[in-house]
Amino acid sequence: MSGEALENLSHEDRVFFPSEKFAAQANGKADLYDRAKNDRDGFWNEQAENLQWDTKWSQVLDWSDAPVSKWFVGGKLNVSVNCVDRHVAAGNGSRVAIHFEGERGDTQTITYQNLLDSVSQAANALTELGIKAGDRVAIYMPMIPEAVISMLACARIGAPHSVVFGGFSAESLRSRIEDASASLVITADGGFRKGSAFGLKVAVDEAIEDMPSVKNVLVVKRTEQEVNWNSDRDIWWDEIVSRQSTSHAPQAFDSEHPLFILYTSGTTGKPKGILHTTGGYLTQASYTHRVVFDLKPETDVYWCTADVGWITGHSYVTYGPLANGATQVIYEGTPDTPHKGRWWEIVAKYGVTILYTAPTAIRTFMKWGDEFPQAHDLSTLRLLGSVGEPINPEAWMWYREVIGASNCPIVDTWWQTETGGIMISPLPGVTGTKPGSAMGPIPGISAEILDDAGVAVGHGSGGYLVLTQPWPAMLRGIWGDMERYKETYWSRFKSQYFAGDGAKWDNDGAIWLLGRVDDVMNVSGHRISTTEVESALVSHPTVAEAAVVGANDETTGQGIVAFVILRAGSEDGPGVAQELRAHVAKEIGAIARPRQILIVAELPKTRSGKIMRRLLRDVAENRTLGDVTTLADPTIMNLISDGLNSSSTDDD
Length: 652
Description:
The chain contains 20 helices and 31 strands. It is α/β, with parallel strands linked by helices. Helix 4 (79-92) packs across helix 6 (145-157). The longest helix has 17 residues, at 112-128.
């Protein structure tokens, strides 16, 4: 990736430092960087000792069979015990583990003792159904406590789980169940979204038709909608789990025992099952949750808004927070049901102190207007986090000023399904932060930015982001396809993990993520990041959100097509698109001026908030639309397609 289109971003020179008060109490200290650099194995050894092990390991890292690693070799532990039992044993059974808030206002308060009882009962039920260590269990659930309980019950008995996001279609579910050869599916009759019930059991029925590997379907009664029932296969959760004993003797498993398979989404062909194991994964999930979010389990109320169907929900809803004895919020519904202040109402209700969410959500709140968060008391917040994609500087500043009252450090985190845990992030209390930058690798992680030839670039230049050393939570392979693992992640740069993302160093040595390298457009020989153009658009005062794609162009190779949502109160008119095109040219350069700008009411997003740029490319290139079943609102694409022909084009 050349540096031609990687000019300094507008906020590169603006740095926010932690207050002396925050720094004094922070879990992360500056010496962590030196300790990790000087004795990497010793550093990770120290982090692993924060967990409860039945058998101590004999070797921190075995990298002799690279690119397959083994961490904490010979060590044995139980993940469920580390997330639940040990907190009860330490006298914290009465501490709240989960504040559950249903979309319709129903609530549950679940203490660590309650959670231990429920997980033990669920583990006993799975055992009664014949599930044993090594068997795979598919979980297809709404965002309710039983989803977390199911994950922990699987971990307790050593059965690797494969959680499938509840917004995926029956066909997507089927491919994942088949690939993992799951023998049990845990689901619900349905869930609630935007005030209405949606079905899940119906999708499971379709997915497992003529699939003999699935012996049973365990069904949580959530919506009480009518479902088809196969009495030889289907079992109500309440009927089998509630009659189980709350006593369960857990078994310790090897550090490298498979913990879960999580399939990456959005690609065609065979799903890619990312395999994570036990000891290294839990070590890094708990360590990063503790230091990146500065968790104080006795006083903090933590809320990660991700669904458990994604890796963020695995590492920073289920495993990281519970391993650290945190009190957290789990919310079932959408941010605008029954009103656009719902999230902020929840923050005020539970006194949330740490909030971790996605840039897409932040930009949506910006679009709706400041009045919604300002109607609620957000003064308990003390730290904010961002995850999922690069956050544009304007959204970062809005997050800081409107949600954090200019008083909360922001941790902008980069990591992936494959990495298992946070890799690049500011360390609150230590690191200065720049709006839109993930800053640098956390202690214990080694990263570099390379050019096409595999040579490290200097400050002020961009290229390919790689990880140069193994890390505890790294994937151990692609389920059933080790050659694909090696080819996908380790073939581009010898002995280094290629993340698939572009990045740049600024002149001060801070890292700026530029999105997937396949989201880099080639315009007249100049490589331009979609993220840079999107950030330039959102820096205009009338723009709330933007998505940019590259479309084939006979003259320039690719032309830049932008889809833009205006802020509330801003009006679309004949001159708006031209004004925005000129604004991008001013911010980045004339080469980045969009060929077309389409003002839209919404963007195509999955139920998790991810923008489906693939569909926007289909529209921009006048192709038949691909699969839209995972969109939160499939009708959005019709509105976008209808409006494209009336959009502004580049006549200059």
